[in-house]
Amino acid sequence: MQQQLDAYLEHLRSERQMSLHTLDGYRRDLLKILALCGKAEIASWVDLDGRTLRSFVARLHAQGQASRSLARLLSAVRGLYQYLNREGLCRHDPATGLAPPKRERRLPRTLDADRAQQLLDGAVENDFIARRDQAILELFYSSGLRLAELVSLDLDGLDLPAGLVRVRGKGNKVRELPVGSKARDALQQWLSLRALSNPGDGAVFVSQQGRRLGPRAVQLRVRQAGVRELGQHLHPHMLRHSFASHMLESSQDLRAVQELLGHADIATTQIYTHLDFQHLATVYDQAHPRARRSTENDE
After folding, report:
1. Which entry of 131, 182, 240, 246 is annotated as an active-site residue?
2. Residue 150: which CATH number?
3. Is the overall model pTM greater than 0.70, yes or no?
4. Which of 13, 61, 146, 235 is catalytic?
5. Are 176 and 41 found together in one domain?
6. 52 and 158 in one domain?
7. Considering the domain boundaries, does residue 237 fall inside one?
């Protein structure tokens, strides 16, 4: 078994020209399987079947091996058996249909409503960068945008009089989201200064040189705002998580929050229900901490 494993690794190195880093990972993973085979008195790769390999994976998982690492290990096993089958040394693949244990979902970090208010309600200087960054923070928290959705947002995706933003999310899916009054005000003040940079395209958020802001630039500005206003690490997805958490706490309407977030993974789509936009807007108005409508402000 060791000789065949060595031959496979040499094949990856010389013929497949696999990087040394990846090759080292494959070697470590396959040596783990080889050691487990030795303990189980399995003397040939031909004798390793799917049930036994599944028990090996379960044992490694119980010992603390992460799901991502186990996925890589199974990929290495599949590669080995493809090689063995091609060389006529084996006629099966014990990893067929075998998936790693599901990854445990970590609860996302969020700001509580008071911390979000502290972040957003500080004094804002009336200059290009300050107004732009304030509009970015407000829009993240107001509408729960993903980072990619915010940086790709164009002017024609904004309808501030109607309080809407149209974004293209994962899977190229377009959705319309409400924009709260605080975010609308911040965007209007930013757009009045945006033209100073002579923008080269229709991007909503641009640099002082008129170029569309990229993801790294936005992450940096959000991180700096977190340190300056809260004394803590802050990233765009934390604002999105905070949006979702505060909406759900207030509305208790999980389906509406899922729609607003544009979730598409199977765990959320199992209970996903399409709701009309008017319902979503009503839930948003009633629940979001910064969604007071102008009618309320006029009273």
Report:
1. 240
2. 1.10.443.10
3. no
4. 146
5. no
6. no
7. yes
Q: Which residues are within 8 A (CB) of 67 and not within 5 positions of it... i.e. 6 or more apart?
A: 61, 100, 101, 102, 103, 104
Looking at the structure, tell me whether residues 131 and 251 fall in a common domain: yes
What is the radius of gyration, based on Cα positions, of the chain? Answer: 26
Contact 290, 181 (CB under 8 A): yes
Establish if 96 belongs to a structural domain: no
240 as an active site residue: the answer is: yes
Based on the structure, what is the number of domains in the chain? 2
Annotation marks residue 86 as catalytic: no
Q: Which pLDDT tens digits describe the chain residue by residue (299 residues)?
A: 899 999 999 998 888 887 888 889 889 999 999 999 999 999 999 999 999 999 998 888 888 888 888 888 999 999 999 999 999 999 999 988 888 777 655 556 778 888 999 999 988 999 999 999 999 999 999 998 999 999 999 999 999 999 999 998 887 888 999 999 999 999 999 999 998 898 988 999 999 999 999 999 999 999 999 999 999 999 998 998 888 877 777 766 666 777 777 765 434 323 222 333 445 566 677 777 777 654 444 44
Our answer to whether residue 272 is catalytic in this structure is yes
Q: Which domain holds residue 25?
A: 2-86
Instruction: Indicate which residue of 28, 68, 170, 233 is catalytic.
Output: 170
Does the annotation mark 146 as catalytic? yes
237 carries an active-site annotation: yes
Q: Among residues 92, 255, 272, 293, which one is catalytic?
A: 272
Give the CA count within 13 Å in the CB-facing half-sphere of 295.
2
